[in-house]
């Protein structure tokens, strides 16, 4: 008798069994959950005339959690261990998921049930959190097309489905474009200036591909140091060209994202118009803190005005040192190289000096000690099934030794893994019928992997990235909310979701935190205070240029989704217009940055990229209270955990901020932290 084997994606009794998940499990799992959920929806509809929290809202949350947990595993694997088979199954089921949610958003009986709930006499007895969930649902129905005619609803669903597929294809083209590129160098003379560790890594890649010499790719741990240290200007230009033209007609026409960008923009506008909005930005801002694109543009332009004098000075410094290196016209591929020269000359240290002090074990230990002091939590290594040998798993316990959260840590760049860094939900917190889940998170980065038996060593920027993503993780994991729909990062306004992540970055500039995170690769000594002081001096090095760069991206995004006419197909010309008014560093006309701008074309940041700067105002202002009272203040740490991290999306983000800070946010702290007040 054949033994029955359960689909690992459907096993809810344990953490995901990643090693057991095969590509042919995906369709079976998705079909099973969708079928079960539709049957459950039919039953829930019967209660729409006389709904209660228990017979109507809770069952809807339960089925949402079931599907989200399964699809989260599938989506995550598609991002971190991408393969042809997995990609095929992911794409095959993407349309089903989109259709399911579109149909649910247009379910008149469910919508009526929520409206009826608000009309009941005992509605007033619901908690503030429960009422927010109901209100959020009603807004969601409006944005899902509940008021549309049947014909328009069908069009709406088709557009949503097509957009999900286009976004996936955009990301696939980008990943494939990065994977397709390698630069094979056989002469060491060309590699003058490159650090030994980069050369050894490139040599290892060449050996793995059965080639002599050195092999360079476009992953961040390779690309960034090459641009910083390579003396050969042509080499820098070649690498920059490859990086700046990826997923465009200038690299591989089969992987060109041009048509996808145009189609995504066209369909998003159609989506907004169908719902009665003039543009996609207006629709998107319905659920954000910012109230209009004009408000955002004004905020960004104001920030640009404050940053521009500093950026102009930064550029003058680059031109001055460029002349000494016989670079009379500075190009985009010279910026990182000359910046490193200025840093060495001006502050007497390089990023290499810093990297030698940040081994992964010490960095993690320092990070975990910090959150223990702030929030009273303990983080320990644990064992569970993972998707790659480099992945680690950790548990979080509170002061009463209760398990309250867990997370996967996938730190290193590798082939078939999406670039960048992110946090995503594996399991969300909820309390259904007395059972309370333990939340879990995926924390993903793309750092250099260990070599020659030594641990991985991080740059200070990588340490900041790790702290950033860990801040997102804490927002998800330390929630006190057990209502699934608003627990953790759920229902947090998009332009506030970066507050906890950017808040954590500030600790990377505190000596009392940093000193315990350092150990020199050779001497094993702690970083000397004098080197840290140099880091502080250089903290806001080129902050003007960096601020303008972020403002440029944000303005491109918000104007693209508020005033751009997709019918023109000239989004590059639109970008050039933005650059002409903002940028100090002029990108070459063949730069194809939009073709890899995953945040807005494949992620959730469309009409929302401004949120990085918007939320930075909140995070800097929040951190200033720690500066005023002591950065390890348990009282303030506990207040931040309770009012920001713990509240999730259970109330408007501005209310959470005001509850913590005791007032409305001010931009002063951001300008001070960014060095945009004085030099």
What does the model show?
- By secondary structure, the protein is an alpha+beta fold.
- Among the domains are: 8-105 and 107-143, Endopeptidase. Chain P, domain 1 (Glutathione S-transferase Yfyf (Class Pi), Chain A, domain 2, Up-down Bundle); 181-245, no CATH class.
- The protein contains 26 helices and nine strands.
- The protein has a five-stranded mixed β-sheet with strand order 3-4-5-9-6, with helices on both faces. The chain has a two-stranded antiparallel sheet with strand order 1-2.
- The model has no long low-confidence stretch (mean pLDDT 96).
- Name the CATH superfamily assignment of one domain: Endopeptidase. Chain P, domain 1
Q: Indicate the structural class.
A: alpha+beta
Radius of gyration over C-alpha positions, nearest whole angstrom: 25 Å
User: Uncertain regions: pLDDT < 50 for 5+ in a row?
Assistant: none
Spatial ordering of strands, largest sheet: 3-4-5-9-6
Q: Specify the helix fraction band.
A: 40-55%
Mean pLDDT, to the nearest integer, reads 96
- Give the terminus-to-terminus CA distance: 78 Å
> Which sheet architecture does the biggest sheet show?
5 strands, mixed
Q: So how many helices?
A: 26
How much beta, percentage-wise? 5-15%
**CATH overall fold name of one domain:** Glutathione S-transferase Yfyf (Class Pi), Chain A, domain 2
The appropriate CATH architecture of one domain is Up-down Bundle
Assigned CATH class of one domain? Mainly Alpha
Q: How many β-strand runs?
A: 9
Tell me, briefly, the overall form: globular
């Amino acid at each position: 008798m054949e033994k029955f084997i359960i689909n690992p994606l459907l096993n809810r009794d344990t953490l995901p069994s990643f090693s057991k998940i095969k590509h042919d499990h995906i369709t079976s799992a998705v079909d099973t959950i969708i079928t079960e959920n539709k049957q459950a929806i039919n039953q829930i509809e019967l209660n729409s005339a006389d709904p209660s929290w228990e017979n109507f809202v809770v069952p809807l949350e339960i089925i949402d959690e079931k599907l989200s947990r399964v699809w989260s595993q599938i989506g995550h694997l598609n991002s971190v261990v991408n393969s042809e088979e997995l990609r095929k199954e992911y794409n095959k089921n993407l349309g089903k998921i989109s259709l399911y949610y579109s149909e649910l958003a247009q379910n008149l009986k469910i919508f009526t049930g929520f409206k009826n709930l608000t009309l009941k006499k005992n509605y007033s007895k619901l908690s503030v959190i429960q009422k927010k969930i109901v209100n959020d649902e009603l807004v969601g129905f409006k944005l899902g097309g509940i008021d549309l005619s049947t014909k328009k609803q069908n069009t709406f669903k088709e557009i949503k489905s097509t957009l999900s597929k286009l976004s996936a294809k955009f990301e696939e083209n980008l990943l494939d474009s990065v994977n397709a590129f390698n630069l094979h160098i056989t002469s060491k003379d060309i590699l003058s200036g490159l650090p030994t560790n980069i050369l050894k890594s490139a040599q290892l890649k060449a050996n793995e591909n059965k080639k002599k010499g050195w092999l360079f790719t476009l992953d961040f741990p390779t690309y960034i140091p090459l641009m910083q240290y390579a003396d050969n200007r042509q080499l820098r230009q070649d690498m920059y060209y490859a990086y700046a033209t990826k997923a465009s007609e200038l690299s591989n026409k089969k992987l060109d994202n041009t048509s996808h960008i145009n189609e995504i923009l066209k369909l998003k506008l159609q989506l907004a118009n169908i719902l009665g909005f003039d543009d996609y930005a207006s629709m998107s801002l319905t659920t954000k803190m910012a109230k209009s694109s004009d408000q955002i543009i004004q905020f960004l332009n104001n920030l640009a005005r404050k940053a521009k004098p500093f950026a102009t000075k930064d550029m003058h410094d680059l031109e001055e040192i460029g002349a000494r290196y016989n670079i009379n016209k500075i190009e985009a591929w010279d910026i990182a190289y000359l910046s490193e020269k200025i840093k060495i000359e001006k502050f007497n240290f390089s990023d290499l000096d810093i990297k030698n002090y940040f081994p992964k074990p010490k960095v993690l230990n320092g990070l975990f000690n910090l959150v223990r002091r702030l929030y009273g939590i303990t983080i320990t290594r644990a064992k569970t099934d993972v998707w790659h040998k480099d992945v680690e798993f950790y548990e979080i316990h509170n002061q009463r030794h209760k398990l309250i959260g867990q997370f996967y840590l996938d730190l290193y760049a590798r082939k078939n893994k999406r670039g960048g860094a992110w946090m995503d939900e594996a399991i969300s917190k909820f309390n259904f019928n007395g059972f309370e889940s333990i939340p879990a998170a995926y924390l993903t980065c793309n750092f250099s992997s260990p070599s020659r038996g030594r641990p991985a060593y991080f740059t200070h920027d990588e340490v900041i990235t790790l702290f950033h993503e860990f801040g997102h993780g804490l927002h998800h994991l330390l929630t006190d909310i057990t209502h699934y729909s608003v627990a953790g990062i759920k229902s947090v306004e998009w332009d506030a979701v970066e507050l906890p992540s950017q808040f954590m970055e500030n600790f990377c500039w505190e000596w009392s935190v940093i000193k315990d995170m350092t150990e020199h690769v050779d001497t094993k000594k702690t970083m000397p205070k004098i080197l840290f002081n140099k880091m502080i001096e250089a903290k806001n090095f080129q902050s003007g240029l960096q601020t303008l760069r972020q403002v440029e991206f944000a303005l491109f995004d918000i104007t693209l989704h508020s005033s751009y006419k997709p019918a023109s197909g000239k989004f590059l010309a639109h970008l050039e217009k933005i650059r002409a008014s903002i940028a100090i560093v002029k990108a070459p006309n063949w730069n194809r940055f939009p073709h890899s701008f995953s945040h807005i074309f494949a992620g959730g940041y469309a009409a929302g990229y401004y949120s990085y700067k918007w939320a930075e105002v909140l995070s800097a202002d929040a951190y200033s209270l720690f500066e005023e009272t002591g950065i390890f203040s348990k009282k303030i740490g506990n207040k931040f955990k309770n009012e920001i991290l713990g509240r999730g999306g259970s109330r408007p983000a501005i209310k959470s901020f005001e509850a913590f800070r005791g007032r409305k946010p001010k931009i002063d702290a951001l300008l001070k932290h960014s060095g945009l007040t004085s030099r």
